[in-house]
Queue: 4 jobs
Job 1
Amino acid sequence: MSLAIDAPAAAGPGTDRRVQARRLTVVLAALLAGMSVFSLAWGASGTSLWGALGDLAAGRELSRLDRIILFDIRLPRLVLGVLVGAALAVSGALLQGLFRNPLADPAIVGVSAGAGLAAMAAIVLGTALPAAVQQAAGSYLVSIAAFFGSWIAILVLYRISTRGGRTSVATMLLAGIAISALANAGTGMITFMADDSQLRDLTFWNMGSLAGATWAKVFAAAPVIWLALLAAPFLARGLNGLALGEAAAGHTGIPVQRVKNTAILTVAAATGAAVAVSGGIGFVGIVVPHLLRLATGPDHHSLLPNAGLLGASLLLAADMISRVAVAPAELPIGIITAVLGAPFFLWILLRRFGSMGI
Amino acid sequence: MQAYDIRVTLGRRAILKGVDFEARPGEVTAIAGPNGSGKTTLLRAMTGEVPFSGRVLLNGHDTAAMKPWQLAAIRAVQPQSAAIAFPFTVLEIVRLGLRAGLAAADSDLPLRALAQVDLAGFAHRFYQDLSGGEQQRVQLARVMVQVWEPVRDGVPRWLILDEPVASLDIGHQFTVMDLARSYAARGGGVVAVMHDLNLTAMFADRITLVHAGRVAADGVPAEVLTHDTLAQVYGCPVPVNRVPPAGVPYLLPQARAV
Ligand SMILES: Nc1ncnc2c1ncn2[C@@H]1O[C@H](COP(=O)(O)OP(=O)(O)OP(=O)(O)O)[C@@H](O)[C@H]1O
Ligand SMILES: [Mg+2]
């Protein structure tokens, strides 16, 4: 594969990429901390984090406005951005390991579309459910629906594109197009059935946005995404083994079927929860793991945690761009990630195409 | 390692029609036979990669009842060809074997295994950039690391190799076959699919000759590699001679009767 060409400098004789990857983890954690502070400090209103901190240090009460802006607007948005960015990047890395190629991304292969369709269906048709069910599911109804939507999409995708343990990249991409088209048709139908207030809720799915961040959304997504992020590292050994091929992975003692099922469930949970609260934000899952593989190699032990950290930072950066690009209005963040990510995707595709076909 | 009455049907074709096979620890057992005779299929059945009927015993235990990690601890399998997803380095590939065989994660086994297959200095190169023969030796290093000690806790371990010398030059054919011999000499079991009958005669203790999904002959090389058997199985009569001291048979393709 041509992807290796850039990297020899990073893996010259005598260097161990495991050490580099651990160093990178520290750097990325620092980057995320910096980005978080930056994103708290920065916004359309005049509220300044430093001013507020100064007030607190001096023992003064914060003004009501400052408090609302910092704690009820910027902080939930920050937390949501971190969760969603990490979820999407880790989902991308897991999907790529599962399908054994670097072009799998939840948004490109229709997994996000499946989650979006199910989430919209829950919003619009959820009111028709028996009251008891609504009561029990509560604010999680949309997240739960999104989980099942993405789960079904991945299962279908995997069935179609993987035969006898081998994935055809072309089939995977084409099947992804078909699944997206089908889900989008369903989405269109539901939009048609929605009333005006629901319509407002729905519009942001088409673009993907963090603008509606509230603590309620954070609490709906956080447990699921945390669970998925915690589960991901346990798949590292299995996914490394899968790179050898399914049969060879089995011979090294990996319970292949269990690894695959767990990976699929984890991606479904992370993507579902992310899509439920932020819509279809694309390309994070492809850009982040790819850059990390170029830097420190494809070992999933470091790739997965580093992807979570870099994905979170990247989404915070994109969110800041979305807030200032057309200020005082806001650009949906999905547009930013697509503008940056789509050419990147094409670049990977062309390089693979040049060297080995799809 | 024993296999009884192995039958494999792929699609609607019967590929293996009742094969019995035995390999003993301390020996190199070769599986030979024409293209398409079912050698790879036999290995894949015995390693559980394809559905089959029959029984496979490894150190006396039925493999069907063993977990992947239990099998991985006593048996490593080298595939006939191996493309790898993602740009892993040679060392990273060999380390995958290390984790499988329950050896200490930070030992220097991978580097020693690479040196044994004559790839010292290749550790940090990208697997995908290597030549076919080099990739094959990396895979051998990986499976050797997985079952490094031929005997562990008194239990013999197994190397299962599908055409381990297929794309190697003559020097490295010897390197690899010497490794297989030494593994067997130290008490481990080696099962290898082979095409080069001269090399097989030199290095194998026993040969199982497969023909059209059945065992055509098995035994020590001198019994199996006879003019009549080869003529019948390969359809080309080649004279078989013997090198004086050990009586190892050798074939002289130039003397083929046309
Ligand atoms: N998946 C499959 N479906 C149908 N037939 C198959 C399949 N795999 C192998 N075969 C057939 O089974 C027969 C035996 O194949 P196998 O790969 O075992 O041969 P082999 O002895 O290893 O040959 P070679 O020397 O070329 O490696 C061949 O005729 C092959 O066409
Ligand atoms: Mg074969």
Note: Chain A has one domain: 23-36+63-355.
Job 2
Amino acid sequence: MISTESLSKKYGDKFVLREVSASLPENKITAFIGCNGAGKSTMLNIISRLIPASEGCAFVDGKKVSEWDSRKLAQNLAILGQNSHNSARISVEDLVAFGRFPHSGGSLAERDFEMVERALKMTGIEDLRGRFIDELSGGQRQMAHIAMSIAQDTKYILLDEPLNNLDMSRSVKIMKLLRKLAREESKTILIVIHDINFVSFYADYIVALKDGRVKYEGSSEAVMKSEILSDIYGMRIEIEEYKGKKICVYYQ
Amino acid sequence: MLAPFLQILILAACSFCSLFVGVADISPLDLFSLSGEQSGIFFVGRLPRLCSILVAGSSLAVAGLIMQRIMQNKFVSPTTAGTMQWCKLGVVIAVVCLPGASPILRVGAACAVSLLGTFLFLAIVNKVRGQSAVLVPLIGIMLGSVVDAGATFFAYKFDIIQNMASWLQGNFSLVIAGKYELLYLSVPLMFLAYFYADYFTIAGMGKGTALSLGLNHAAIVNAGLLIVALVSSASVVGVGNIPFVGLIVPNVLAIFKGDGVKNILWDCAWLGALLVLICDIAGRLIIFPYEIPIGVILSVAGAAVFLVLIRSGRRYA
Ligand SMILES: Nc1ncnc2c1ncn2[C@@H]1O[C@H](COP(=O)(O)OP(=O)(O)OP(=O)(O)O)[C@@H](O)[C@H]1O
Ligand SMILES: [Mg+2]
């Protein structure tokens, strides 16, 4: 399980994350929502040890993140950061295979190849396997990075705005894939997402951040309310029912 | 790329030619009946020269490749980051402070100084805000020139400039048996680089990616720089400053085969050896019976490739 205990982060003397205590459900998709600068990426990055906390701590499976052996943690937790664009000129296949590095230590075994194939297939980018990532479109590159995280085959998968650059059909494909991973393979998925209607359709649990604090937290059903969302985003958001699902209308 | 078999064949053919180019006439047929003088030239001069070319060329190309990955910049190399110049300064310091210093001590001194220098370079580069990819090697070249001038100044001041001549300009014609063997230090380092190739590729994908895969980015960078410093030092002490190999070779290969260190390491070593070998043969033939030092030829070739790279930098850098 992933949890945090009065987690704070400050830059200079400005708190960007303040006393966040949360424990996130297992085998579910948890969506982090909030305005730009609310602290979503900061929280994900601390949980995945990419940046250190200023105060408090994050726990993975009951153990402080800072006490995990980095490679062991990488076998249990994958993180795709918001800015993980790398300009390296390597092929999609090699990139995805690097997702196996924490397990293989560099020499790929039979199982590693299988996982790479599976990740390529699940994300539907088999036809891109030989292409260099610096020559792909933004969305194609994003898909390749998602495939890399999936190939890592970890219990926890953290994705910071994975739908960036993706078209509608690819977005749906990825969200369905994540749901499948959570339901059928007992993965715990933490995802930052701005498209609130994707949250409504796919997230099981929602953590809503505002100014570095967790303002609301709960099941998707409980948080998807007009007052709550209007408060979080500081604008009027109405909710309509469509075939039993909630659709947010906020375009005007 | 060519099949490994063909690569070896080409390199072997060029090596063979190289053995029989020179002022003293030795033909392949003479090998079976070498006169005393001929066998001296062959085994003390020609063969060591060939070996040193192959080792220096391949190891410097590999060093350049590692450097480009760990600094995430296509334009750095032992030459353009000033590493070679720091090595030179290290050798001068060793010769001045310990006149009878053995070659291994010189390599040690060169390596220590160049490590310090390269870390200094890294620190400066990290300080420069909004650094563009091209600015980084320019800083390195500037810093390198200053260090180079300093080394030359001390060499003059302490009257060891004659000793220095060979280090100021890489020159394989001074290679003779018994004086270059330290260069072989680079061979195990290349194997080490191959063994840890994936680590360097991942480091080249950024701090965040390395950390998310459970690797210590700083440790990889330090290990890589140590290899680069050792290879450069062995080369400077053994045969002198061989410029630009580490810049040209990995960049040309990356255009075709990408940045994956494991994928191009062998090609890199091969092409590095071949490039230096061909430039050396050319240097010996152009104004025969005189020689143009290899450093001059490589500088011309390197400068040209560097310009092309900068011009097409948008696309490949
Ligand atoms: N390295 C840094 N130095 C100073 N301030 C930072 C740094 N990184 C982030 N911040 C600040 O921390 C706050 C939270 O940033 P964070 O990246 O977590 O936002 P976010 O919720 O992910 O936003 P977005 O939706 O735009 O990605 C922001 O106000 C940001 O300006
Ligand atoms: Mg963010």
Note: Chain B touches chain A at residues 72, 198-199, 201-202, 204-206, 208-209, 211-216, 254, 258-260, 263, 316 (CB under 8 Å).
Job 3
Amino acid sequence: MRSFMHNMRGASVFPILLTVAGATALFLLPNFVESTYALHIMILIFISVIMGTGWNILGGYTGQYSVGHAAYFGIGAYTTLILMQYHQVAPWYGVWAGVVVAVAIALVVGSICFRLRGPYFVLASIAVAEIFRVTALNLRLTNGAEGILITDIPPFKIGNAVVTDFMSKVPFYYIGLVILIFAIIVTWMVQNSKLGYYFQAIREDQDAAHSLGINLTTYKNAALAISVVFTSMAGSLYGLYVGFIDPSTVLALDLSVHIVMICIIGGIGTIWGPAIGAVILVPFSEALRSNMIAQALIDSGIISENSRIGAFLKDQLSHAHVLIYGILLVIVILYMPDGILGFARKLLAKRRKEAA
Amino acid sequence: MAILEIKHVSKFFGGLAANSNVSFEMAQGMIMGLIGPNGAGKTTLFNCITGYYPPSQGDVIFDGHRMNGLHPDAVCKLGMARTWQKVRPLAKMSVVDNVMVGALCRTNSLKVAREMAIERIKIVGLENRAKVLAGSLPIGERKKLEVARVLATQPKLLLLDEVMGGLNPTESEEIIQLILDIKEIGITQMVIEHDMKAIMRISDRIVVLSSGEKLAEGNPQEIVSNKAVVDAYLGGD
Ligand SMILES: Nc1ncnc2c1ncn2[C@@H]1O[C@H](COP(=O)(O)OP(=O)(O)OP(=O)(O)O)[C@@H](O)[C@H]1O
Ligand SMILES: [Mg+2]
């Protein structure tokens, strides 16, 4: 019995039940939620969870802090949208084409950048992403700074039956949810396999890992490939959902930082960290951007609209989300180095110890 | 036949010859002691042998394979494993998981790796620390973890770099017993150690390095009565 429990480590029944219940609730949610804004936020959260979960394989498990993952998000988005808009390739093929292109490019980049370690790798990953951004700005194929605006997404048919015509937000919600669940399952499988052990060994000490028979280049590239599959899919989904992409949104350094932040805030190297990070960060940054926070402060009477502070906040707070990201990041790193999930686990363990 | 042949190995760092023209052989099943004052080039020789970096000159032949240019992972797969003088625990992984990483060199199954790991953990006597994070172990147990982890890679030849360094006498004695147990299993070992009493007790033969060069080689009695060695250790100050 003991050895049975031991083998089922990380897979005890309660978390599985909880996960299934959560997934079911998410599947039913659009039936009860009327607000398109709520669905919109949910879709943005799903996209962030997908890309965060992707980054987490490389950054969280393998310890290779890429701050250039916007490159693969953008490559996925551009590939899918260009194929659809200019070559009439349906997006459910285009998404996979995006994955293939993004992974192929990632492996070339990886075989060069993975020679570098620590901060040098981080800088190289930023530089590479910037190269892609500038290239997209200047290429005819990507339509330069104007970006790509899509007209209609062709309806999705099985046989002759139209499954969806993509006129509402609901199909994007379900596609996002399915990819998200897929990403979580893949992470769980990685964590419970040789790959996961090797990834974590590389994160903890590359030289030790190398001397224990781990081919560093092979396994770093494997982590990168898995990571890029999801980052690219998130990009494609984003492009299709929003209907417009340009270098300053899908290839921006901002976005690369956002991906990393999601994971650091939630808890890197854990299955649920990116999900928790996205659930907190996405609504927060939306609220900042749409000036909701300043408005709420004024409405609640904490700050008067006519005061200088009130006017300043109303004008400027929406531009300050990067600054606030930075402050948040510093707080998390100082007080919760293992993210919110790590912090919660520590609290729980402490409670249990005190109870015992 | 020798399991390891080191032929005229030199390693230069800029103008410094950390190893110069070192040659010796090791027979299957023996314990070779490798001694020398600080900075003599002992760790450098381990690094050259295990592919951490290639020797500047010379050849290393292990079990019939010419090792030059092989990377550490390939060296490990061929059956040669080393511990680190400055221990390198995989800090945020548990003791079992650390040893499993070693075991996964020989299997793709986590289940098999876990069984292999638990066996090695028992050999070094860390069985009741199995679930503890490696980063929270005290130095004595970290050294044992290093040994368990390399044992799990199923080596033919084990290179131990100061596994007694920084340990108290009881712990050192445990490590000595451990090294002798490993010899019983039939694994050949090369052991770097500063503790002379310990090295004389466990070694079948000893190589002495000084300023990168091989100063002497012989069995323990020959080494203690070798004038050059005594001078290097006692006359140097
Ligand atoms: N990577 C390196 N770059 C430059 N010099 C080095 C490097 N590694 C070692 N050395 C130098 O080579 C010489 C031999 O060092 P090594 O670590 O091999 O000695 P050691 O015999 O293991 O000493 P100790 O007993 O202190 O561990 C020293 O002078 C050291 O400073
Ligand atoms: Mg040394």
Note: The longest strand of chain A covers residues 161-164.
Job 4
Amino acid sequence: MPETSVVLPVFKPQRYVRAKTPEEVLSIMQTYREKARIVGGNTFLNELAKRGLLSDVEVLLDIEPLELHHLKDEGNRVVIGASTKIEDLAHSPSVKNNAALTALAEAAQNVHPVQIRNLATVGGCISTGVPFLDVPVALLALNAEVRVVAKSGEKSMPIDRYLDMSLTDYMADKFVKELVVTLPRGSYSSCFRKFGLTGFDYALVNVAARTSLDINGICGDASIAVGGKGVELSRMKEAEAVLTGKPLNENTIGAASQKASDTAKVEDDIPLRGSAEYKKHIVKVMVNRALAETATQLGVKNIGHD
Amino acid sequence: MIEITLKVNGQMHRVSVEPGENLLRTLREKIGTRGVKQSCDYGGCGACTVIANGKTVYSCMTLSAKMSDAEITTVEGLETTHGLDPLQTLFMEKWALQCGFCTPGILLSSKCLLDSNPNPSEGEIKEALAGHVCRCTGYIKIIEAVREAAELRSRK
Ligand SMILES: Cc1cc2nc3c(=O)[nH]c(=O)nc-3n(C[C@H](O)[C@H](O)[C@H](O)COP(=O)(O)OP(=O)(O)OC[C@H]3O[C@@H](n4cnc5c(N)ncnc54)[C@H](O)[C@@H]3O)c2cc1C
Ligand code: FES
Ligand code: FES
């Protein structure tokens, strides 16, 4: 067979701007729209460029001079700058040593390999518009707020809204400055679990969960988020409702996992790695494991999982 | 074109780069460090790995313009006036390479690992080298060579 070679459109931006102020970023984005791209670690943009999808990009916008590398522990909340590397998030003591936030550090640790964690940024990873990355799922379960800079000033918005917008739109009117994760009061535990074809694959299904337990052994607050290849990135509200106001045990966790599986929106797609039935099964198993882990961390004894 | 300064293997270089140019191209074509290998060009093989400011990165997706003032180590920088780095000698002695195409990247990831974690477990070695593909050795010999380099360092 003769080889057929496809010539892809080339990526050849003409300008590289080190933006010194947020106003400069916004003004270039508004002038050039899709033809200007903010560069974080470039790990995702590179993939688009090499697939021939960024041939119309004229300007690369480097936001490094805005110095958004902070990861601040403010006691009742953690503030993470958009340029923070995934590797720094993975090892931040304020994140990994706090039971209510561990899921976020675990998600960052699950981004493989280390060469990617050393480049990829938090701002970039929530702005790719794909539903199967690890850190966004954890941010969703932890109710993170995204602080964006827009023409009208700085604004906060819930992570689910930001992710929805980045899944559907190119945003020329705002960019991410930082993420804020507020610590809930009470006894909380959180956990992230990923299922891929290999340990270093993108997630077929990833799950982040956080639960609380009061002194009477009742779960006051549960949050569960799922994502994956062909799995809608979303909170599992109905599954959360199964747990709130109930004790955490094998039965309640089993029922919540079943509900998550029943309500998860999955695509029946072989290129996206499997049938709907298969993905729903994996959602159930992974939600079960994540919830069982949070319950065990909260001191609940004898919780098994499949 | 953008003027940037790079410190590569201890030497300062001033080079002009295009806005979308990656570090792989800058290093190979403008600075001449051909030990940096290009294979997949999208993050699937690790052959292009270099150390930038103490951390391993894939140079095939690192924007050169973003790296101004960075300190880069390529495989050419491992050798000192005392000779090859012990990792290099051990890779040869232990048969941790055959064709050698993956070797520069793997050596740099191994060096970075041992610099921050002088006594890594087998799991930690595997994690540090997970971003590399080797089509020849089957990996076992590589892991053994890194282990031995760690032991050699601890005896010194
Ligand atoms: C080999 C490889 C392996 C990977 N493995 C994993 C894995 O195991 N798990 C996982 O979750 N992910 C994985 N990824 C994906 C990786 O997490 C994403 O590519 C990364 O998070 C994107 O971040 P970045 O900083 O590199 O973004 P960039 O590529 O720089 O940018 C991505 C998008 O975000 C926009 N953007 C960047 N910063 C901002 C900002 N501050 N405000 C608004 N928009 C912004 C850019 O314009 C662009 O549209 C892998 C990627 C590669 C190449
Ligand atoms: S050439 Fe960079 S990872 Fe393969
Ligand atoms: S030695 Fe040939 S690819 Fe590794």
Note: The first strand of chain B starts at residue 2 and ends at 8.
